[in-house]
UniProtKB/TrEMBL annotation:
Name of this protein: Xylose isomerase-like TIM barrel domain-containing protein
UniProt domain Xylose isomerase-like TIM barrel: residue ranges: 50-313
Organism: Streptomyces lucensis JCM 4490
Any Pfam family matching the protein: AP_endonuc_2
Signal peptide: none
InterPro entries in alphabetical order: IolE/XylAMocC-like, Xyl_isomerase-like_sf, Xyl_isomerase-like_TIM-brl
Amino acid sequence: MTPLPRARTLTAMTSLSPSSLSRIRIGSAPDSWGVWFPDDPRQVPWQRFLDEVAASGYEWIELGPYGYLPTDPAVLAGETARRGLKVSAGTVFTGLHRGAAVWDETWGHVSSVAALAQAMGARHLVVIPSFWRDDRTGRVLEPPELTPRQWRDLTSLTERLGREVRERYGLTIVVHPHADTHIDSEENVARFLDGTDSGLVSLCLDTGHYAYCGGDSVKLIETYGERIGYLHLKQVDPEILAGVRAAGTPFGPAVARGVMCEPPAGVPELGPVLRAAQRLDVDLFAIVEQDMYPCDPDAPLPIARRTRAFLRSCGV
């Protein structure tokens, strides 16, 4: 395994000028419109999502669950272009800790999403580990902790995925720590990063999920800055989170209770996170994601407008 040099600390980067602010590009995603699945009657139609995300002042979007937006690149390119939108990334779910037996099935899904993302001019593929309990029902699907063998499979196959996606599609994978997956807490995120090649695997830091699992986003940026390739901006309601943790509530029902809240009402504070990210002096997407599945179809647009205004007040 390639040794990992630690990132420059923030104290070493304080001389950077505020102009690095311009290197953070803000966007939003179907998730902020209550979209979790390719097709669900409780979700807004894709046309309404595109109309409203553009009306909210965002320029960049993610593809969301594959099949929600049109998968024909020509159709999607026309629909996004006429609304002034561009695609930053696609998203895939993987279960690579299960070993080589799942590779072919995983690659079949990844290649479809990566091809569409590439055709839309995106440069990233967000990789989310599979859930150890069902995000809708809470049913436990497998143990929440990985064995040493499963950790080896997870890290080695993620490196393979990074290599294949880069070579075939020109995309960088950014792995997304997520509640109710095996890459969640500070300990598990550090173990994953220390076990993977920095040249092949970067991180999508989701500020809400990391806080949900007890992590400190600013500390993570300070420690592993060179591995931060992408951001998801999200906050959690600390009071609801305390109840969720105490009760062991699964992620899906926790979202239905409102654990992910509208900024700036929750934690972590996004201003310090953005300032820490800016001092890395690299180009970063910062995509707003407020998990709201399911939600009133009229709720997302005013929240998105207020959130965009709040982020402008933070300087982005």
